[in-house]
Amino acid sequence: MNLTLKQLRAFVAVADAGNFTAAAQQLHVTASALSLMIKELESVVGTRLFERTTRQVHLSPAGRDFLPSAHRLVDDLARAVEGIRDYQLSARGTLRIASSPMYAGTLVPRLVAAYRQQFPGVKVYLIDVVTDQVSAKVASGDADVGIAPERSVPREVIQKQLFRDPLQLVCRPDHPLAAMDVVPWSEVLRHPFISLPVDYAANMRADLAYHSEALTLEPATYVNFITTALALVQAGEGVTVQPSAAEPLAAAYGLQVKNLKDPVIQRRICLLRPRERESSPSAEGFCAFVEARFADTSPSSRPSRPASTRR
Length: 311
Prior knowledge:
alpha/beta; Arc Repressor Mutant, subunit A; D-Maltodextrin-Binding Protein, domain 2; 3 domains; 10-stranded mixed sheet; 12 helices; 12 strands; rod-shaped
């Protein structure tokens, strides 16, 4: 059966419009050309699809039966073609990712490298900003997507958890805590503590208090960047606690990383995207790629402080 897409589109257009003139204008062809396509289609299927009068065109019984299938075929093909176009655009587009310094320097570059193996034509710009500014970048349109620890976000932004990242102790190899396999928080708090900015310590302090009021965090030093915290630890000024994503950075400074217990604290790491603004094909493709990559990450069964109490 030599059925063509042009014939199907012609049939659907005439059936929907109810006359050849309007259908021809919709398809940008002449009425005679449209009439010829319908005759060819009727010849292929072996029956009349329209009952014609001098003024109107009506579907024949066979035409009424055929119309739903024809609609479905035309619509399915249109979606398939659109999908190919979106794929091509996603393979050549521009992608702007906002992320906090911790993940901009560890996780996100690895994700970008894996994504660009599939879409090498995409130009990726990584915008590293403090955590609280990631959602603002997405909301304003300065970034297409964001990856950052969970925070309160404006209404314009959708925040979806990707995985949970446990906090770990970072210390010098010759530090007393380095000899322990798993370090209790009660031991960590006996030593000078180097913290990232105040909100970082506030979240950690609240997590500890949720576990036990006896665990009181009073940082000896506050810094803005993880590299500064690691340099101070390297210099022997104390210890710090960072997400597991920081482990490669800690190793670069010659530091050791230890698991913590009593409590185990985890940070929710989220994908941020605009709620209503239409995303580019490259942004949609990256979001789908990231979500699929973390789809098999099982949420931890360990107790965690309710999300509503986090900043």
